[in-house]
What does this fold into?
Amino acid sequence: MKKEKTMKLSLPVEELMTSGHLACQGCGATLAMRYVLKALGQKTALCIPACCWSVIDGPFPHSTLDVPIFHCAFETAAASASGLKAGLEMVGDTETTVVAWAGDGGTFDIGIQALSGAAERNDDIIYVCYDNEAYMNTGIQRSSATPYGAWTTTTPVKHFKNRPKKDIDAIMAAHRIPYQATANTSYPEDLFRKMKKAKEIKGTRFFHIYAPCPTGWKSRPEDTIKLGRMVVQNCIFPLFEVENGENYAINIKPREKKPINDYIRLQGRFHHLKDDDIRLMQDETDRNWERLLKRAEAK
Amino acid sequence: MKKVIMGNHALSWGATLARAQVIAAYPITPQTQVVELLSEMCASKKLDAKFIKVESEHSAMAACIAASMAGARTFTATSAQGLALMHELLHWASGGRNPIVMGDINRAMAPGWSIWTDQNDSLSQRDTGWIQFYCASNQEVLDTVIQAFKVSEALMIPSMVILDAFAISHTYEVVDIPDQDKVDAYLPRFNPPFRITPADPHAFGGLTGPENYFELRYKLQVDMEKAPALIEETGREYERAFGRYLGLVEDYRCDDAELILVTSGTAGYTARVAVDALRADGVKAGNLRIKVFRPFPFEEVRRIAGRAKKIAVVDRNVSYGHHGIFYQEVKSALYGHDHGVPVFGFITGLGGRDITVDSFREVAQQALSKPQPDREITWIGVKG
It folds into this structure.
């Protein structure tokens, strides 16, 4: 008799994101939405400001998601989510998870005031920033999430970005919100677990999700998952969670910390960099990693 | 129940009686007492509402819009710089068909810093698709908030209830506060045709191409055009329930008037005193106070002002490089209907400079001394 093979699935089969979305090939932001909705379920409402996802979902009257979406103004993701949560509760819906879903420009730059306000009030929302490290929807302009060294259309190779990425995670930790986490679509089980955990917590929860953008990074679509693995192994984008702004826990510590060179060389946006530039980036990566290790030890 | 309350508290009472469910607001002089009293109403459970104490007016309007999308009745209040900061979202509220009611305390725009009244803050928002009510007394403020919710929710268009800084906001008057059960009967619960709910998921406000956007805006204008009749109808209904009519305009001694002074806000009540004084001097004057500025009450202005021999529009605002804004609008309403009535434009009272009976005497003297206006704007009270 033939032995029946069984496969254990680590994520729910149910899809709240259907076909027909408008994302580019290899888009990390699209995978992020798919996994996040698997964790949060159908009783979820999204506030999406101007960002790639305001296009990815499809034009009026179409939508690729089976959850309601409020397309809100660029700088209002957090304030809109606060208002939506309050409004839903006043009409008797206390169950729906309200999610602000914004890009890095809408979070690190134009939306940071509203985000800071909502976090300080500890409004009962989940804020997700999918970080593709530039204004990709408008055509690859630098944001304060763009890493040192990167080419964008507003940081040409002769004048590449010469300031490091803003440390949004430290900024959010300084708000003492109950829960925050970084995540990465190359580690879907880790993302799923943390989002499930966040769903059960009340107050402001913040997710910073690494989202490769082949179009803007000049990387190959088939390398998206690889890049996501690399940033965890080389500690450019570590996976960690923080409770109450103080208790840091690193989710994945690489056995052997890899140098950043291979990661840099897979992306056209860094092609112009000389070895000295990459050394600077390596130093910054090392310093950031050491700082995170100290924070995680201190708990 | 009659109470002596300040104009700002008339806004708070209006929102409370209307059972606003979500309030998001940010403090600005001279609006602060509106939100202070509402905070107390919420804290003491007199009002069952969520008060989101946001970090800016921009977030205040954003939160109100999203709460309205969920199907909640929402209220906020602001003034001047705060209103200007909201500008982007005022378009969002009307375009998204969110029937938010907002109090705006008319305050002059900086620089230099001014906390005193003029209308350039609210009139700068003329084309954002909001209904605009300009009030002249504390009672009118309270009544209009309740009526505004009824009109806004019927049309799914937001409303601004506007009052002069200090002349109303901080002035105490006797106000008849209606019974809650009567207000409930006048203003039933908000029940929008569409709302954000996972039970019926839709995407609201997504990318809208040229094949659809045009019609969405056309429908907003069509519904805006329904507002004048609805304001009159709900105003009469209000009169039946509470004894006070709330209309588009208010005319005073206009029936046989040869000179009609057109005003808005508290200047309208000063103008009434001026009309009596002018009539005592033998000038047949009248006052037309325009209460609803958007949509513009074309028919009422044509009917009342169009039969005078002369019209003098007194503006507490200016469109730089053009005229006073009510002056523009009155002329536009009369064009093709005016039988040649000369319309004079006056600007006075900017930045809270008092508009007095003598201001109107000067207006009347200027308008009566010339057959036609001989300049684009006549300024009243500018120091030489």
